[in-house]
Specification:
Layout: E1 2-9, E2 23-28, H1 37-55, E3 60-66, E4 70-77, H2 83-92, H3 100-108, E5 115-120, H4 130-138, E6 147-152, H5 159-163, E7 176-178, H6 184-187, E8 192-199, E9 205-207, E10 210-215, E11 218-225, E12 232-237, E13 240-245, H7 251-271, H8 275-292, H9 307-312, E14 323-327, E15 330-334, E16 343-345, E17 355-357, H10 358-364, H11 380-397, E18 455-456, E19 459-460, H12 467-473, H13 491-501, H14 505-518, H15 523-536, H16 539-552, H17 557-567, H18 571-588, H19 593-605, H20 609-621, H21 632-650, H22 655-663, E20 674-681, E21 687-693, E22 699-700, E23 712-713, E24 724-729, E25 737-745, E26 752-761, E27 767-776, E28 782-788
Parallel strand pairs: 2-3, 2-5, 5-6, 6-7
Antiparallel strand pairs: 1-11, 3-4, 8-10, 8-12, 9-11, 12-13, 14-15, 16-17, 18-19, 20-24, 20-26, 21-22, 21-25, 23-24, 25-28, 26-27
Helix pairs in contact: 3-4, 7-8, 13-14, 13-15, 14-15, 15-16, 16-17, 16-18, 17-18, 18-19, 19-20, 19-21, 20-21, 21-22
Length: 789
């Protein structure tokens, strides 16, 4: 029998207090504080008022706002803190990623007072974590800080991560408090007990057995496994017995709470384990987490969008797991026994229309209005088969090898690290064994047939015209940009973009700020505000706005990359953050090829060629799903050769070692200059088409990949993310080049967002970059990405 009881630690009335000589208050202003920000700052103001009331009007205090950077708000005596300083906090606003490590380092360098009180939600989305973060806390000891405490706010918190920091190398242990409910002014003066031992005689299992830190009077829940049911428990806390009643609860919720406790115990053991022991613990945590539906460091909530994703993880798509529902007796477990068949509604004017199974429609050739299809009005199934045959033919015409090519499902995700804030910095488990790919699903043909000359198996197809002459004359090229294409942007983002193009920058900033204030979690509002601030020259604030994407979507590798791509134009203000967000994206989704490239080149830009070379080799060596990144391996090989040259130029003593590492992969150090246009997009299962036009009338795109003037589009990726690369070897001779994109197919993920990276290599190890991020919102929309001289 599993039971739970609440215990109280120590005698609060008998506790001792030590008045603070001064308090440095660090206020988290990261993007996650955006909802209810005014109320949050009001609570900070009330806390400061309470410090003044409790410890005197002349109590020295400092107020520091932090997220991905830090800013001094106030320094003086408590009675001097007032409306002007609250206004300054409000004007700073909630933006940026939460990097507590840099904030602690900044505070240590700016003469903090003897006590540090951090107001935050505890969820760290950038910078150091775990043991490395504890070292940052340790820096405070060198500047005479005696104690650090945390006051947590918000609905999503990481109490455990903060609890690990209050007992570092400082003179006194601190505590973790609630900003809105705990008496913070007095609590930060109370003595904190360390390593409180909990024991329940006769229990087979107890958690927690040791409470690392606790204030007198603090209450906590203890779980136990008993040989038989009990209504009360005799619990020893630091050797003193307490008789406590067992907490009652609905069985499904009790079971989840017990499972969470068991997982927490294993997580603590995992933090101290290595090698085989760590691997075994990870497997146990994952098994328990999945069975109990409780997130852990080894699990995550994922959207599986295709049969391929289900096959990869070995999940039966027709399985029926139990679910929790609100029933007549409260929370109940519902055992599902029936699969609801997919159906469509037959349209018509009658009120008694009935759902009909799609398969029945296809078998009977019934159209969407319930009419029998004729031979010249094929059923959906026939249309799919015809489209599939056309795709197969087009693949052969494209020189793509075997038939069966479709714009099919996205690459399967590998298990990322936990989305739960309490998961710490645990790395992702190794991907599961690869399952056989399912049969391809027929889709609407994505390419019009073409007539240029193609040879396959040494034979020229009858009726084909000469490809080279068609390219030179332009006779067979589609009109570009396409006439009547839908707008790339719509809604408020389109309005703000028009203002920026019209040089009405102040109006654009005002409109973007208003949008963001109304919808602080809206990704497009953040993009609009960031671009408006860039145009105004407020690059530090723009960097915080783009950092907000990291803070709001910390568990999504695509969003982390997108934020890094936006920050890339502001490298001087976010160099470390860019590298950090790409490192985390790669750790979460090593199966995304673009992450490895972005990380490697961010390290090149940061002046770390050795790390960049290591990162790009890891990208080459990773096993990607077949067909997911057409042409991508070639791009990575070019990258490795050029980054190897950059590394060798920076450290000639490593040249032989670099050449050897490249040689193992069939590569050499690059010696020829090149210019590359590389397109990324952070959307899965979709198709963004890259178009390159030169000043001589040449036009390269998916079905005509080479420019007569020189240069080649490596491949056309139809399954999401990119990279699509157009490379010109040697010196470009047909500029200016006009670059643009067509959103051929959104797929299930909505609007597209990404980056055009212009990269120049001088053949001697020198690399230069230009970044052009973009958003595109409509199918078949055209977006102009400008000219390259």
């Amino acid at each position: 029998t599993y039971v739970a009881a609440q215990i109280e630690i120590g005698d609060h009335a008998a506790t001792t207090r030590e008045a603070p000589a001064g308090v440095t208050i660090m206020v988290d202003t990261s993007a996650s504080r955006g909802l209810g920000f005014a109320g949050y700052i009001r609570s900070v103001r009330q806390m400061i008022d309470s410090l003044r009331t409790t410890w005197g009007a002349t109590l020295p205090i400092q107020v520091v706002a932090y997220d991905q950077d830090a800013e001094a708000i106030f320094s003086g005596q408590a009675y001097e803190f007032g409306d002007a300083h609250v206004k300054k906090l409000m004007e700073r606003g909630a933006a940026g990623a939460s990097d507590l490590g840099q904030a602690l380092k900044w505070t240590a360098q700016h003469s903090p007072l003897s006590r540090v009180l951090v107001v935050t939600d505890g969820v760290i989305t950038a910078g150091t974590e775990g043991a490395e973060l504890a070292k940052q806390v340790g820096l405070l000891a060198a500047v005479k800080v005696e104690r650090i405490d945390f006051a947590l706010a918000g609905g999503l918190r990481d109490d455990k991560a903060m609890a690990a920091l209050v007992r570092t190398q400082l003179q006194r242990a601190g505590t973790v408090l609630d900003l809105d409910t705990d008496p913070i002014a007095t609590a930060i003066a109370e003595t904190v007990s360390l390593d409180v031992v909990v024991d329940i005689p006769g229990a087979e299992w107890v958690y927690p057995k040791v409470i690392p830190t606790a204030r007198a009077g603090e209450k906590t829940t203890v779980y136990a496994k008993l040989a038989k049911p009990a209504q009360t428990l005799d619990i020893k806390v630091s050797g003193k017995s307490q008789r406590m009643s067992v907490i009652g609860g609905t069985q499904p919720l009790v079971e989840r709470a017990i499972a969470a406790a068991e997982i927490a115990e294993m997580e603590e053991a995992l933090a101290k384990s290595t090698g085989k022991d760590a691997a075994q613990l990870k497997a146990k945590i994952a098994k328990k987490s999945v069975a109990a539906r409780v997130l852990s460091s080894q699990t995550s909530l994922l959207v599986l969008e295709s049969d391929a994703d289900y096959a990869t993880y070995g999940i039966n798509r027709r399985s029926l797991g139990d679910i929790l529902v609100v029933g007549a007796n409260g929370i109940e477990r519902k055992n599902r026994t029936q699969i609801v068949k997919p159906s469509v509604q037959i349209a018509g004017n009658t009120d008694d229309a009935k759902p009909v199974d799609k398969a029945q429609l296809e078998e009977k050739n019934v159209d969407s209005n319930g009419a029998q299809s004729k031979d010249d009005d094929p059923s959906p199934m026939k249309m799919k088969k015809a489209a599939e045959k056309e795709d197969e033919l087009q693949t052969m015409l494209d020189g793509g090898g075997s038939p069966g090519r479709t714009s099919g499902p996205s690459s399967p995700p590998s298990p990322p690290r936990a989305q739960s804030p309490s998961s710490g910095s645990a790395s992702a488990p190794p991907p599961p064994p690869r399952a056989p790919s399912p049969e391809p699903v027929a889709t609407e043909s994505r390419r019009p047939p073409r007539t240029e000359s193609v040879e396959q198996d040494g034979r020229r197809h009858a009726g084909a015209t000469d490809a080279l002459s068609a390219d030179e004359s332009g006779a067979n090229r589609p009109s570009w940009p396409p006439p009547g294409a839908p707008p790339a942007l719509t809604g408020e983002l389109a309005q703000i973009t028009r203002l920026l193009r019209g040089k009405q920058i102040d109006s654009a900033v005002s409109k973007a700020r208003d949008w963001h204030a109304r919808e602080p979690g809206n990704l497009l509002a953040l993009v609009a505000l960031g671009e408006a601030l860039e145009a105004k020259g407020s690059v530090v604030t723009a960097a915080r706005v783009y950092g907000s994407i990291i803070d709001l979507f910390p568990g999504r590798a695509d969003m982390r990359r997108f934020a890094g791509e936006r920050l890339a134009r502001l490298t001087a203000h976010a160099k470390d953050l860019i590298v950090d967000t790409y490192q985390r994206a790669v750790a979460d989704r090593p199966d995304h090829m673009t992450g490895h490239r972005l990380l490697a080149y961010a390290l090149v830009r940061a002046g770390k060629p050795a790390e960049a070379f290591k990162a790009i080799l890891a990208g080459i060596d990773h096993d990607y799903r077949d067909g997911s990144y057409a042409g991508g391996e070639r791009v990575l090989k070019d990258d490795a050769s050029m980054i190897g040259a950059t590394y060798a130029a920076a450290d000639p003593s490593k040249r032989e070692e670099i050449a050897k590492a490249l040689g193992k992969r069939g590569l050499k150090i690059a010696t020829r200059a090149s210019t590359r246009f590389i397109l990324y997009w952070e959307t899965d299962a979709n198709d963004v088409d890259f178009h390159i036009q030169d000043a001589k009338g040449g036009h390269a795109f998916y079905s005509s990949k080479q420019l007569p003037s020189g240069g080649e589009l490596y491949a056309d990726i139809t399954t999401g993310y990119g990279p699509e690369c157009f490379a010109i070897q040697g010196k470009p001779t047909a500029g200016p080049y006009h670059l643009s994109i067509d959103y051929y197919s959104q797929g299930p993920m909505g609007f597209g967002m990404g980056l055009l990276e212009i990269q120049r290599f001088d053949g001697k190890g020198g690399l230069t970059f230009e970044d052009r991020p973009y958003v595109i919102m409509n199918d078949h929309a055209y977006a102009d990405l400008g000219y390259i001289k």
